[in-house]
Each structure stands twice: as C-alpha cells, then as structure tokens.
Amino acid sequence: MAKLRTLSILLSLLVPAHPTRSPDCGGILTPSGLSYRKSGPRSPTLPSVSQPLPFCTGRNQITSVKVAELSLSLIPDAGLRLSIDVDLGVTPVMRLSILADFHVEMNPEGNLELVTSACKPTVEEMQSTEETERSTPQFSLLRDPGNGGKKICLEVSKLLLSPNERLMSLTAPFPVTPSCQVQYVPLAAPMFSEQGITISLQTTFQVAGMAIPLPISPVPFSMPEPVSSSPSHLTLAFSEHFYTSLFFALEIAGAFNMTIPSPLTTATVAQKITQMGSLFQEEQPVVLQAVFRSSPRVVLEEGKAALKLFLTVHVGTGAPAFQSFLSVNVDMSAGLVLSVASTRMMISAASHRELTTDSLRQDDLLEELFLPPIREAVPAQMNGVLSEGIFLPHISSFTYMDVNIVIHKVRKKTFNLPPCYI
User: Does the keyword RNA-binding apply (predicted)?
Assistant: First the structure.
C-alpha cells in the first residue's frame, strides 16, 4: 500500500498543471452584508483625541468623543466609502466629519489589502439649544482642519490595520487531513459593483507539504449573477471542479486507500469457487484491499451531487502478509450530502446509487461474495475522512449562519451557497 501511495504521488506530478491561473470558487459580499451590524451599540475605535487637535485653540480641550453616525457604502468600479460623524466635547460643541475612500489591492505576498484612496475631514461648529432659539436664521461655521486633517487622515489609515490582518487570514492554509491542506488564493483584487464585492479564488492543495498540480477544469468558472431579491449577506459559489480537486487531493494523500474486513474465509470461498481449494491448505480469513484505479469525480446535477468512484478491489488473505488471489474492478456512485457548520462545509457520502463490477463470468457470484462489505465499508471510510469538514473561505472572527444550500446544474456548472449571514 505504501508503494501504491508513493506511485500515486509520482503519477500526480505528471498531470499537467494549469497553464494559466483560473478560479474554481468565489464569493459575493452584498451591500446588506457590508452594512451588517450586530444588535446593540457598535462603535469603532477612533483616533485618540486626549490632546488638543491643531484646529482647536489651546483652551478648547476635547473632553469627550461621541459617534453620531457611521456608514460604509460601495462605490461601483472603485471601492468603499467610509463616512463618520463625531461630536467632540468642546465649547462650542464641534462635529468632526470624516469622508474616506478605500480600494483593495493585492500586495506582493498575494494578500488582499485595504488602501486609503482619499480622505477629507471637516469641522462644523454646532449651536447649543439656547443659541438656536435666539438666532434666526440658524447657521453653523464649517472649517477646514488644515494641518490637523493630515493627522486625522493618518489615524484613519491606522484603522485599516485590523481589517488587513483579517484579510491576510483569508489565504491561510487550512487542514483537511493531517497530511493534506487546502488554501484559497485570490487571483486579483475584488470587483466592486452595485450588486456587491465579488472575489474570485483558486483552490490549491498541499500533500505532505508539497503543492500538487490539479487536473485542468474542462469548463471555465465564473461567479453566478447575484439575485437582487435575495436577502443574503454573502453568496459563495463552488465549481464542480473544486469538488473533484478535493477528492483528487485526498486520493493522492492516500486517505481513501482501505483494507476491508470480510466475514469470508478461504474455505467458504472455496465452496463457491472450487479452484480456491487447491490454493490454501489451511483455512484463512479473507481480506479486501481497495485502491483507486482512476481519480474520483464529482458530478453536480440539479438539486443533487453525485460522487463517482472507480476502484480496484484486491481479494486475498492477510497473514502473514497480504496475498492477493483475485482482483475485480468496482464502480460506485454515491450521493453527497452537504451542510455547513461554523466555517466548515460538511460532506458525507450517502448510500450508494450504483455499484457494478467489471465483466467476468462470475459477476453474480462475485457480487454475492464481495460486494456487500464493499457497499458498507467504502462510504464509511470516506465519511470518516470527511467527518471534520472542509474549511470554507473565511477571515478570523467570522462564522456562517442561517445557510441555505442550493445545487444547480447550469452551463458553467457552479455550486451556490446562498445565503450566508455573518
């Protein structure tokens, strides 16, 4: 089995890599997701203003800071706009308004990074209630903070440190099994539109610390059109190729190579296959070993997903070392059940849909003898490997809630997860 695994890894290196980097999954953060706020007050950490700002006189010490309004909006084809109104505890009361634009870049390390495009602070003197009752018409005085604006904008740029640290966690490698890791790599800076922020990702897998080349996707992937009536905060889409690549990586890692116990012995097999009697003088337990003769394949259909398995089952005895006396090719098709828990997609193989052997004279006999344990053991082994789930693209301090999973078979074969709430 160890030799087979080594050979499998070496053969995988002969599979041609992607000639160009292409996405196999992605996500759309909608405007409602962008403006999502947990219940209760939620104020940002604002610049320290315990010292008088340059646009205030020395006697106008700022004693308090109160966020009056905060909003974050999309600028199509550009980026984000942050608007903050802050009431400063001075006499007279002043309102500091900050309008800052951001865009997203890819840094040399391949991480996404929020960068300030523009920043404009203004100050407005607010009249007290008594002053507004005595004055007609009401008015206020707008000021340009001058050099103080540079300090404010510098502090605003510091507010991006925490979001950028979280964006870096998007590209962190996540474990699938002890020897296999998955990583979601952005291919370009996100696209900003009225529908939301769209990001395209390429999945990469590492086995034993080495990146493995994946088969080339036969169908180009692109994000599905967002549904304007959907209340979702985030829509994720995964291609058919994503799932096939996942099972390919697990196959290369040897996660699905399995030894299957059997209730049979050489004596009981000899009752059905008379030639067996001359091979084994003493009764020995029969053991099955299953390996992939070609990579698993996932097929997305409307409303359902199917896993196609192409196995070679070696039948033999296990003592003192495995000795095969019969091999049979077995093709299986199992339904996939998908769900989401926290930041992981849970995948399990349902009961088989089809299970066939290759064309041998003893087909019916082989099915009677060997297929029952295969039917039970193969899905159980796969479910054991997948029991921890597969990490979805996410940043730190993030979880998926109220997830609705929809599987579509469309021209570009995408798999959607709407909606996901942060």
Answer: no
